[in-house]
Amino acid sequence: MLFLSVVSSLAVFGSTNNVNFNKHIKSVTAITEVFPDGQKLTTVAIEYDKNIENSKLSKSAFSVEGRTITNLYTNNSAAMSSKSVDGKFVIIELSPSDKGASIFVQSGRTSTRLEAKASVTQTGDIMTTDWEKYTSTADAITNNKAVNLFLYHLLKKVCFSFKWLFPLTICKYRYLF
Confidence band (pLDDT; 50, 70, 90) for 146? Predict the structure, then answer.
């Protein structure tokens, strides 16, 4: 049960830092995944105050410091998807083979877990679904949240499978699912 409590605390991280976003950005979430060669930051989800028009987005509208953008689309939640829908979230998928993708860094016998941080700049204008233009900015923003998809899905499965056993510990995070 202790293990499950630890897992539940690791699935979603929140920062207590006061982050100054531009007036239209509500939050920025870094999303990590576990690969055979380690945990990597693979996606950034930017939440805006209005729905964003997906058909007007281009990869050149954003840059992520030290990372390669592989895909860019909108969604109605801070999650990767194979199908884009107009929503408040701009999803920026990043190359897992980038040098800066790894969260765990190995040096000899010592491994260090880095914080899942991404510095994003809106370098081009984007359009909302009601045709309001959000202009580019030179200011980079850093994520204020992080989600580990492996632990998130593990917690979801444990919570669903054993909710009768752990109703007040792990499953208090059911609002995430």
Answer: confident
